[in-house]
Every structure is written in C-alpha cells, then in structure tokens.
Design brief:
alpha/beta, 9-stranded mixed β-sheet, 32 helices, globular, binds ligand 26Q
C-alpha cells in the first residue's frame, strides 16, 4: 500500500476524508499511517549493539522528520496540496515532546538520527516524561511554568508490552517499555528509542508544575528534572535515574540472551554510552545484575568497564552530580556494596582524594565512577577536551591518558537544514546536487559560488523570505510587528549567567540610549532572545524580567521603535528553533570563554547562513578555524586568560563598572524609565550582581562586545560582502554534521 492509500484508509476508518477532516485529525491520521510504514522496517543488525543511555532526548516534533527519513515528504506534500491542504499547517497540530533541557538532550536526538541513518545498530534508553520539561508562558513580565503534555490517544509511542521490575528500598515498580521508532534516512533501517514509564502515571498537576514529590509510583515519570531546590526533588531525580538504568540494564541482558550470547562475552556484543552523569548508576547496577547471574565481582567489573563509555558535557562544578550516600540508601541500597567495592578498588589504584568515588563527606561522585570504570571518556569540542585534560579532570588524565579523547558535537542537517529550511536546502541542491544530504562535507562544493553574483542574490533572497516568515509567525503568536528589512540578531539557548544573555541585554540598553541621543543606526535592528530559566534560578528569571521590561520600553517609545525591536520569544523549544534558525543574520555565541563545552545552536545557525558573533569558546573555536577571520566576529578574553583570572581570583567587576564607558549601561537598570516598568527587587538584584559579583565576567568583555557588534552591523551594509560570508559559513558547516560525529564515535569507541 502506498502512503495515499494508507492515509485514506485511516481517515475512512475514522469516518472522514482528506477533503473534510480538520488539520488535527489529518495530523493524527498521518501519524498512524507512518507508524504502519515504520513497523515494516528492520533495525540495523550487527555483532555488537549500542545502547545510548540519556536522561534526555529532545526529539522535537516527529511528523516531518519521519517523512523526510522515510523518503515520503514530497509525496505527502503533493498529496495534501492536491486537496488544498498544507503540511506546515498539519504539522502545527503536532504536540512537541519536550523531553530535554537543551543542548545535551537535543544532541542525543541528533545522534539517534545519525546512528540510524548510518545503518548502525544502536538504540536510545531514557524515560517517558509525560509533561516534559515545562511550557513557558510569559505573563506580567515573568516566566510562568506549566505542564507540557504531549502524549495523545494517537501517539508515536509504541507500547511494547514488555516491562521490567525495578526494586527500590520501599517498593517495587514495573518499568513499562514504550518505544519511539527512529527511521534512518532512506535506508530501510528503523532503530528505537526506549522510554521507560511507570504503570500508573498520575494526572498533570492542575496549576503550575508543583506536585507531590513523595508520590514516586505516580510521579516518577511526570517531569524532566523536577525542581531540585528541595530535598524531595533531588531524591525524586535519584529515583528516576535508578529506574532508567535498572530497567535499561535488564533490557540489555534480555536482548543479549535473545541473541544467544553469553554474559561472559558482554563486551563483545554490547556498548553502553553514558550521556553525562545522569545514567552513571548503570555501572554498579549492571555489575550487580551480572553478579546475581553468577558472574564474580572482578569479572563483572572487567566486563562492564570494557562495555561502557562516558561523555562529559560541562565543566561547571554545580552540574557535576554528587549524591549523598543517604540518598542511595533511601532509593537503592543494593547499589552501595557495589559502589563501596568500586571505590576501594579505585583507591588501591590511586589514593589521591581528588579522584575518590566515595569522598570523606559521604558524597558519591558520579563522574569519578564513570571515569574509573569506563574505557573511554570524551569531551564535546576540541577546546573543551583540552580543558578537561589540563584543568578540570587533570588528575584523571594523568591516571588514564589513553581513555581521553575528543568528539566534537554535530547536528543532523536532515532536521536543521532540509527540514526547517526547504528553500535553502533546495537552492543548495540545485547548485551542487543532492549528495550533500548523506555526505555533508560536499557542502564545500558551494565555495566557488562566492564569485557568482546571481547565486549570492538568491541566497540573500531566501534569507529575506525566512525573516518574513518569522515575522509573520511572531505576529500571529505574540502580536508583534517586526521590520522585515531589519538585521535579525538572535540568541537562543537555555538561560544561564555563563551564556551571558545579560551582556546582550546591556548592548540593547546601549543601542536604546544611542537612538535616544539621536545616533540612528543604518537600518533597524531586531534583537531576539529565546530561553527558558530553571524554575529555581533567580538571576536567570531576573534576566528574563529585564528583557521583558526592555521589550516594553522600546515598543512603547515612538522615537526608538522604528529602529530597534526587543523580542523575548515565548516557550522557546525545538519547534520555535525551527522558525528562528533559518531567519537569523547574526548568531550570538557569547559565553564566557572556557565555560560553554561546545554549543550546537552555533552549528545550526551557521548551516543556515548566519554569521557568528562570539567568543573563542566551545566549538566556536572550530567554526573560526573553518570559516576564517573574515567570516566570523570574535571578541573577548581568551579561555586561558579567563582561567588565569579565576585561579588568581583577580577579576573585580566594580573596576569595570567604574569605567565611564560602560558603567552607565549597568546604572540604567535602576533608571526611572525601567523602574516605572519593572519590579525594583528583581532589577536591583541584577544590578547588584553586576557590580559586586559578575561571576561570569560580563563587564570584562562588554566594551569589546559592543565595538565588535557595531563593526558587524556596519559590515552588514555591504550586502554582497555579507552574502559571501553567509555562503562561506554554509559551505563550511558540513564538518558539524552529526553523521561525522557518529562515524568518529564508531571508529574510535564503539566499533559496531
Ligand atoms: C545536574 C544535576 C542536577 C540537576 C540537573 C543537572 C543537569 C541537567 C542538565 C546538568 C546538566 C544538564 C544539561 C547540560 C547540557 O545541556 N550541556 C550542554 O551540552 C551540549 C551538548 O554537548 C553542549 O553543546 C553545551 O555546551 C552544554 O552546555
């Protein structure tokens, strides 16, 4: 049956037709039809199978991604068109599963796409959060958090009917195995994302995202990382982690047995990838399960160490998980003897307390357990891996130099170019043929077109169209009206002080005051932010408040509003990113050097023809090497300078505040104009932080940032020169395909 027949069938069973059904009904019917397609495909086969363990898989909407990979996108688009419908409108009815916080979760989703597309045997293992992260409403100048349910009667989830018992100290819960299918790109392969769920999930909380955190059986899979500002929240996270890894480990052993392989050859047939420390308990749990099945401790350790590999995604100390022993006693006491044995063994190997698993304060260091008992440890960009080796994890690097390696992150261009920017994707294919879709390095064949004026003009036209589409979307969603001939300057990522959205806000104040003083820019500037703040992160929420105040201030000032727009996008998520990424001119990647492990938004924006304005941090370093200094705008102190400043405790933000050329921008936070619009408490907290602390050194780089951004905006006016920069960025973005990243993981670590 072809897709048309299947779709008409499903609609007929539901008593409707392609001409009469609603977009929502059409969306559901397409989903059902595609699931039937996918079920006929086969998982990739091989001697050895990868299990990619991650607490987050930020998969985004699946309808278009699956259509593309099944090779059905054009057929379905044509079919819908023939009936006066559009895929874009149907797609808009699909709820987005928000099963991740940000970069780490989205990376895991891109990786699954590439693993399937390269035909490698590998599945994801995670949790089936019913209400996702949270939906963000912006109301009265603040972020409001709401549940973000995504599971409907017709869902991409496949109930496998399989479940595993997970035993906690106080109860045993069944972990139900629900799967999302992950089709490869036009290769007949369909791998799986295994999402474990409780049997009797509790309903969503009525208002907001607070719920009874002691109701483990009901709420274990309600939210991703529920608020961890209290003990009950942190304990619930440990329950989630143990639930995921215990069920996942049981699944691995079951599949090993089904394949007729002995436990003794685990490392020949299985690779476990540990995505940051959230799944680290898989190490002691798998050892425990092997011992239950008769393998002795030393042999179990040997097998598990050879089976596991660990990726570190951050050098921020607060994100490195350390669990108090009494949490584990409460949740899964059966792990403690194993962890004790692993710790003693590690201490026999090296007595340095810096590498202890179980420290003298009775904290279990998950990353330390991962490094001692995995065969590979990797960072996610060249600079990040060097910092891990030389600074943060230096004691470990000296112990195990052979374990450390770099795997620079990547993104799937199937979603982040073909899916979100068809006009650009088609233009590229017209110029260099379609081979770049499976071999992204071929994007380099675009390079000679920097001399082709007609091509450059078309590229500029596509960008203008995507900006108009974004403006239209923001008009419908948020009632905004944005100049279409403006420069679109975009910062989209989780809100965190180290990413320095607050520094960008000070630039907005600078521009506002310049315009007020009669120094008009050459063309309007649209500054856009999209960001969620962790519910308990006060300064991040204050920054959202500041941005919303500035948005109001500028919009209500007729002298300024023709020249400047400030936009905070509500509920920034994967679907919003798919609108924003194609429309961006200037990609803001302004983290304090040394703090952003890699970044992946930088790669998505680059591939869509944005020019980066950034620091030499994370993968920006590699972007700069690829495009050359003429095609990126770099500013700010180097990572080494920043690391030195921290080591010598030598940064004083007040010194910078006292300088006449930037201090007035900070002072504006407490100006009558802003105080009239905002909450004095929030604004004062931000103000105080800038002058008395500024831990992430926004004031250090602010002058250089303003000057560089002005130079960038000036260069934008040479429209031909700018279009060449766009093209060079697109042509060099092939290196950042996650197909390349996954091929490297496989070559150096997994050996599938
Ligand atoms: C840890 C302990 C307690 C509560 C929460 C957490 C927690 C949750 C999520 C810690 C970290 C995360 C997410 C981290 C993350 O997204 N890191 C990003 O990973 C990307 C993919 O490698 C990189 O590109 C980004 O630079 C990095 O910030």
């Amino acid at each position: 049956m072809n897709v048309k027949e299947r779709l008409t069938d499903v609609l007929a069973q539901r008593g409707t037709t392609l001409d009469t059904c609603s977009n929502g009904a059409l969306c559901q019917a397409l989903l059902v039809a595609l699931r039937a397609y996918q079920q006929e495909l086969k998982p990739a086969q091989g001697q050895k199978k990868l299990y990619y363990f991650s607490a987050e898989f930020l998969v985004g909407r699946l309808l278009r991604a699956n259509l593309i990979n099944l090779g059905l996108e054009e057929e379905v688009e044509a079919l819908l068109k023939a009936h006066g419908r559009s895929l874009a409108q149907v797609e808009d009815c699909e709820p987005e599963p928000s099963l991740g916080n940000g970069g780490l979760g989205r990376l895991a989703a891109c990786f699954l796409d590439s693993i399937a597309s390269l035909g490698l045997p590998g599945d994801g293992v995670g949790l089936n959060y019913h209400y996702g992260l949270f939906r963000q409403d912006l109301k009265s100048g603040r972020q409001v958090e709401l549940p973000d349910p995504w599971i409907e009667d017709d869902s991409w989830l496949v109930d496998t009917g399989i479940s595993f018992p997970v035993t906690f100290r106080d109860c045993t819960l069944q972990a139900k195995l629900m799967d999302l299918e992950i089709p490869g790109y036009r290769n007949g392969v369909c791998n799986r994302l295994h999402l474990f769920d409780v049997e009797a999930p509790a309903p969503a909380p009525r208002d907001g995202i607070s719920f009874d955190k002691t109701d483990i059986a009901g709420h274990l899979t309600s939210f991703l990382y529920p608020d961890d500002s209290d003990e009950a929240g942190r304990l619930l996270r440990v329950y989630q982690q143990y639930f995921m890894v215990s069920a996942g480990a049981q699944l691995i052993l079951r599949e090993l047995e089904e394949r007729g392989c002995s436990l003794q050859s685990l490392d020949q047939h299985v690779v476990i990838h540990i995505n940051d420390t959230h799944p680290s308990m898989v190490i002691p749990e798998l050892i425990r399960l092997l011992m239950e099945r008769g393998v002795d401790l030393e042999r179990a350790i040997y097998l598990v160490e050879r089976t596991c590999a660990y990726t570190n995604h951050t050098i921020l100390a607060e994100a490195l998980e350390k669990w108090p022993v009494h949490y584990l006693e409460q949740v899964a006491p059966q792990l403690l003897p194993v962890i004790r044995a692993l710790d003693e063994r590690a201490k026999r190997h090296c007595a340095d307390p810096a590498v202890a698993i179980w420290d003298s304060n009775n904290l279990i260091h998950m990353a330390h357990m991962d490094i001692h008992y995995s065969s590979h440890v990797n960072g996610v960009a060249a600079l990040h891996t060097e910092i891990l080796k030389n600074t943060e994890l230096n004691s470990f690097y000296r112990l195990y130099p052979e374990k450390f390696n770099n795997k620079t992150n990547g993104i799937t261009l199937r979603r982040w170019l073909m899916g979100c920017n068809r006009p650009l994707s088609d233009l590229i294919t017209e110029a260099i043929g379609p081979a770049w879709k499976t071999d992204a390095q071929q994007l380099q064949n675009l390079a000679p077109l920097t001399e082709d004026a007609a091509f450059l003009a078309r590229l500029t036209e596509v960008k203008a169209d995507r900006k108009a589409a974004l403006a239209q979307w923001l008009r419908e969603k948020q009632g905004l009206s944005l100049a279409e001939d403006a420069v679109y300057d975009i910062q989209i990522k989780r809100l965190h002080q180290y990413k320095r959205q607050q520094m960008n806000a000070l630039y907005a104040i600078y521009k506002y005051l310049e315009i007020k003083a009669g120094h008009l820019p050459q063309r309007p500037l649209v500054m856009i932010w999209g960001a969620k703040a962790a519910p308990a992160y006060t300064l991040a929420k204050d920054t959202i408040h500041l941005l919303l105040c500035l948005q109001k201030l500028v919009a209500s000032d007729p002298q300024v509003s023709p020249w400047l727009s400030i936009v905070m996008v509500e509920n920034y998520n994967v679907s919003a990113a798919e609108m924003l990424v194609p429309a961006c001119d200037i990609s803001e990647q302004i983290s304090l050097a040394s703090k952003e492990a890699s970044g992946t938004g930088n790669m998505k924006l680059m591939a869509n023809g944005a020019v980066t304005l950034g620091t030499l941090d994370g993968a920006n370093v590699e972007i700069a090497e690829l495009v050359g200094r003429d095609n990126i705008y770099l500013f700010g102190r180097s990572s080494q300078e920043v690391i030195d400043l921290y080591q010598r405790n030598a940064y004083r933000s007040s010194d910078y505040w006292q300088r006449g050329d930037i201090g007035y921008l900070v002072d504006f936070l407490l100006s009558p104009e802003l105080l009239a619009l905002g909450d004095p408490q929030c604004l004062a907290r931000l103000y105080k932080d800038f002058i008395a602390k500024d831990y992430f050194m926004a004031l250090l780089d602010l002058r250089d940032y303003i000057d560089t951004k002005e130079r960038c905006l000036n260069d934008y006016e040479d429209r031909t020169a700018w279009s060449k920069k766009m093209l060079v960025n697109i042509a060099q973005s092939g290196y950042f395909s996650s197909d390349r990243t996954i091929a490297e993981y496989n070559r150096d670590i997994w050996h599938l």
